Every structure is written in C-alpha cells, then in structure tokens.
Amino acid sequence: MSIRPLYDRVVVKRIEAQRTTASGIVIPDTASEKPEQGEVIATGNGRRLQDGTQVPLEVKIGDQVLFGKYAGQTVKLNGEELLVLREEDILGVVESSDARLKKVA
Amino acid sequence: MSIRPLYDRVVVKRIEAQRTTASGIVIPDTASEKPEQGEVIATGNGRRLQDGTQVPLEVKIGDQVLFGKYAGQTVKLNGEELLVLREEDILGVVESSDARLKKVA
Amino acid sequence: MSIRPLYDRVVVKRIEAQRTTASGIVIPDTASEKPEQGEVIATGNGRRLQDGTQVPLEVKIGDQVLFGKYAGQTVKLNGEELLVLREEDILGVVESSDARLKKVA
Amino acid sequence: MSIRPLYDRVVVKRIEAQRTTASGIVIPDTASEKPEQGEVIATGNGRRLQDGTQVPLEVKIGDQVLFGKYAGQTVKLNGEELLVLREEDILGVVESSDARLKKVA
Amino acid sequence: MSIRPLYDRVVVKRIEAQRTTASGIVIPDTASEKPEQGEVIATGNGRRLQDGTQVPLEVKIGDQVLFGKYAGQTVKLNGEELLVLREEDILGVVESSDARLKKVA
Amino acid sequence: MSIRPLYDRVVVKRIEAQRTTASGIVIPDTASEKPEQGEVIATGNGRRLQDGTQVPLEVKIGDQVLFGKYAGQTVKLNGEELLVLREEDILGVVESSDARLKKVA
Amino acid sequence: MSIRPLYDRVVVKRIEAQRTTASGIVIPDTASEKPEQGEVIATGNGRRLQDGTQVPLEVKIGDQVLFGKYAGQTVKLNGEELLVLREEDILGVVESSDARLKKVA
C-alpha cells in the first residue's frame, strides 16, 4: 500500500536524527523543537492555478527536505509513520556534496 | 436515497479500523486521534473557478482516502453515517498493491 | 408574500424529522446536533464573478438539501420559519430513488 | 438632506414591526433577535470590480429587504434613524403578492 | 501646510455637531457613539488595481461624508485635528437640498 | 552604510517634534499617541503585481510623511534610529506652502 | 551539505553583533529586541505567480539583509545555525559605502 497525495501535498518519511548529548543522554522528542528532516516518498500532481491548470511541485521524490516540527499531519500506513505536508510547509531541500558532484559529472 | 455533493465536496463512508491493542483491549474512538480512512461514494462536479468554469476533482468514486479526524461534517442517511468533506481536506489516496497491478495489466 | 434571495443565497424550508427515541421520548432540538434537511423554495440569481457576470447556482427549487445545524439565518414570513443560506453552506442534495427513476424514464 | 451611499452600500429605513404579544405586552427591542425588515431608500453605484468597472446592485430603491439585526451602521439624519448596509448583508427581498400581480399585468 | 493622502485615503475635517440635550446639558464625546460627519478636504489619487492602474475615488473635495466614530486615524496639523480615512470607511455622502437644486439648475 | 528597502517598503527618519507643554514640562514619548512625522530617505522598487511587474511607489525620497505611532519596525544603522515601513502604512504626505510655491515656479 | 530553499524563501546566516555595553557588560540575546542582520547564502527560484510563472527574488546571494528578530525558522546544518526566511520578512538590504564604490567603478 502507498499514499498518492493530492495537488500540492507531499508524503514525507521522517529521518529521526539521533538526539543524544555528548555524555550519552538521549533527549526525548518533546525537548527539542528544531525543524525536522525527511525524505519525500510521494508528491501530488501540483497546485491548481486559478485558470484550472496544475503547476508541478518544486520538490521531487527522493529529496531530503526540512520542515517545521508541527507541520503537516501524521499518517500511519503498514505500521510506518508518514507525514503529509503541503509543499509550502517545506523550508528547503538539503543537498549533500555528493548530490552536487553528481550534477557536475 | 443518496447524497449528491455540491462543487468540491465528496461523500465518504468511513472504514472503521479495528482499534484493539495486542492484549485485546478495545480503544474507544476518542482515545486515538490518527487520520481516518474511508471510501469515496459520491463526488461533486468540481470547484468553480473565477471565470465560472468547473474543474473536476482529483478523487473519484471508489477511492480509498485519508483525512483528518475532525474534517468534514457527519450526515446520517438511511441509518448510515456518512461524511461530507471538501476535497482539500483529503490528505491522499491509499493505493493498494493490487490497484497498481491492475494499472500495469 | 415570498422572499427573493440575492446572489448565491437560497431560501430553505426545514423538514423537521421527528426526533423521538424508540421508547417514545421526544428529544428537544438542542440535544441533537446533526445536519438538517430542508427543501429549497427560492434561489438567488447566482454568485457574481470577478468579471461581473453571474453563474447560476447548482441547487434548484424543489431540491432536498442537507446543511449544518447552525448555517444561515432564520427568517419568519407569514408565520412560517424559513432559513436563508449561502449555497456553499449546503452539504449536498438528497436524491431519492424515485428521483432517479424519473431521470431514467 | 439625504444620504448617497458609496459603491455597494445601501441606505435602509427600518420597518419596525409592532412587537406586542397577544396579551398586549410590548417586547423591547433587545428581547427579539429576528432579522429585520426595511425599505431601501438609496443605493450606491455598485461594487467596484478588479478591472475598475462597477456592477450595479441587485436591490433597488423601494425594495423591502431582510437583514440581520446587527448588520450595518445606524445613521441619524433629520431626526430619523437610517441604516447603512453593504448589499451582501441583505438576506433577500420580500415580494408581496401585489408586486407579483404588477409584474404579470 | 496640508496633507496629500495616498491611494484610497481621504483627509476629513470633522463637523462637531453641538451635543447638547434639550435642558442644555452638554454630552461629552464618549457618551454618544453615533457616526460622525465631516468635510473632505483632500483625496488620494485612487485605489491601485491589480493591473497597476489607479481608479479615482467616488468622493471629492467638499463632500460632506458620514463615517463610523472609530474609523481612521487622527492627525494634528497646524493645531487643527484632521482625520485620515480609507474611502471604504465612508458610509455615504450627505446631500443637502441645496446641492440638489444646483444639480437641477 | 545605507538601507535599500525591498518592494513597497520605505525607510523613514523620524522628525521628533518637541513635546513640551506651555509650562515647559517635557512629555515623554509614551504619553502622546499621535501619528508621527518623518522624512523618506529610501524607497523600494515598488509593489509586485500579480502579473510580475512592479509599480513604483507614490512617495519619493525627501517626502515628509505621516504614519501611525506603532507602524513599521525600527532599525539602528550607524547609531541612527530609522524606521522601515510599508507604503500602505503611510497616511499622507505633508506639503508645506513652500513646496507648493516650488511647483508653481 | 547545503540548503536549497523553495520559491520565495532565502537562507540567511546571522551576523551576531557584539552586544556589549560601554562598561563591558555583555547583554544576553533576549534583552535586545532590535532587528537582526545576516548574509543571504541561498535563495529560492522565486515566488509563483497566479499564471504559474516564477518571478526571481530581489535579494541575491551575498546581500547583507535586515529582518525582524522573530522572523523565519532556525535550521541547524553541519553544526551551524541558519535562518530560513520568506523574502517579504526582509526589511531591506544594507549597502556599505564600499558596495557603492564598486558600482561606480
């Protein structure tokens, strides 16, 4: 089973950064309000313009994205927690140096 | 009797997942605030654009959709509880592997 | 006397379902917050678009419509309570099987 | 002296229905929150569209209109209380059977 | 010195009606919440439309206008209190019978 | 160093009127909530329209402008307090008689 | 790793001005609510217009910008705190005299 989001929504799988202090203490989720990171696993067909056409999204499947901690709605599918966001809740796409190298090559 | 929703509204029949813990305790509805799943049983003719035309909806009858627990309004018809939602309250369409196979075939 | 609603408004006459439990106890209005049903008895000429034209409404006189309990404003005319709603407050049109048969015939 | 309302505003003179119970007790204004009725005595030149043109209003001078009790702003002119409303605050136009006859004739 | 208002703003000089009861008691300002009257002494060049053009205002210098008691912002210039309003805060223009006669002549 | 404001923003240098009563008592800022006056020292390139073009502002560098006491955001640059406003927060431009003479000449 | 912001967002690296009083006391961040300064290190492709096209931003990489203290969302990348802002939260671009000289030359 998979989710096909509508219009300008995307489905994101969170990447839970290991929240551990230097001394090894694990910080519970509610104690750190940083933006979250995740991987886009599905995108909608794009926002509907006022003339009825749809514009494709800027993010695409596989993108590593940053978003606010309280953005979107959590959905559980096949026992896995996913997040359904609107594209405008996405702050940016994280590009690794590798990704850049690929573009150069 | 049936409901014909207007414009960008859809009528959804909830699929009540069995809310039971591993040890068999049934969780009452108010204790679980996850998004809900349902089947679209009727759709409106589409949102009205500013030039007066209507654009058809992205969801169609038979789609399994996800939506927020408090989205829409409950309607009772023929003793059956239905939900009338705006299409923008729908988070996404659940596609089973079977559905995908059908598309391939 | 009758009311001619403006633009995208409609006048609806409520159909008060008999609110009685199986054991015969009558439930007062404030105890049941279900959507209401009514019959459209007058419609406006349609919503005004941004270019000045008006688009006719999707509902028409005689339609059995569903609406939220607190939608619209109650108006008393000739001793009869009527409801003036905007069309977007209407959840859907109830179609009986008879209505469908008529369409087929 | 008279008031010329701007754009989509209209000036309405309330018709104060005699608020008296069967036993002759006069009900003060604050105790009855029904919509009010009035006669349009002046109208603006119409709402300004986004392209700068103005569309004439649907109501015209002499119309008996219904409006919410708290709509508009009261203005005192020549010792007379008038109400300045936006057209969208008007629920509908009351048409007497006489008015209809005139149209037929 | 004078104020040139921008876009859809107008500068109005209040006409303070003598607030005195029949028995000669002067009513302080805060005790009477009626709309106010004033004379337009300057107008902006008009509201900017979405295509960049400006549409001239409906009110003009010399108009006697009505407005809500709390509309606009008071400005003190040359020791004189003036009011800067948006045109949409103006309820209407008061036309004296004289003004009408002038139009006829 | 100077600030170049974006789009419809302007940079204003306040003109602090001497707030002194007749008897010589200096009134502290927080005790007088009149609109403020200032001189425009930089303007943005204009508001972006929906078709992507920019319309130039109505105010220009050197204009003496009036604005609400709490409008805009204070910025400190080179030890000098400046105010960054949106153009729509400007109530009007103060024109001295001298300015008018210059226009005539 | 770097962040590629979407649409009208920009990534800014704060320039923390040394907040020290004349007598050498360091003022903690929460005690000074002045706008902040930073350098733009990445920009989105521009705001999407209603016809689907994108207009490039007015700010560009390298610009020294001013913004409100509570604007945007903080993101931590490679141990470095960055700020993701919408362009409309930027008050203006700080131009040093050097920058001007370069333009002249």
From TrEMBL, chains A, B, C, D, E, F, G:
Pfam families the record matches: Cpn10
Extent of the signal sequence: none
Record key words, sorted: Chaperone, Cytoplasm
GO molecular function, one term: ATP binding
Purpose of the protein: Together with the chaperonin GroEL, plays an essential role in assisting protein folding. The GroEL-GroES system forms a nano-cage that allows encapsulation of the non-native substrate proteins and provides a physical environment optimized to promote and accelerate protein folding. GroES binds to the apical surface of the GroEL ring, thereby capping the opening of the GroEL channel.
Subunit-structure text: Heptamer of 7 subunits arranged in a ring. Interacts with the chaperonin GroEL.
Family statement: Belongs to the GroES chaperonin family.
Protein name, as recorded: Co-chaperonin GroES
Organism, as annotated: Methylovorus glucosotrophus (strain SIP3-4)
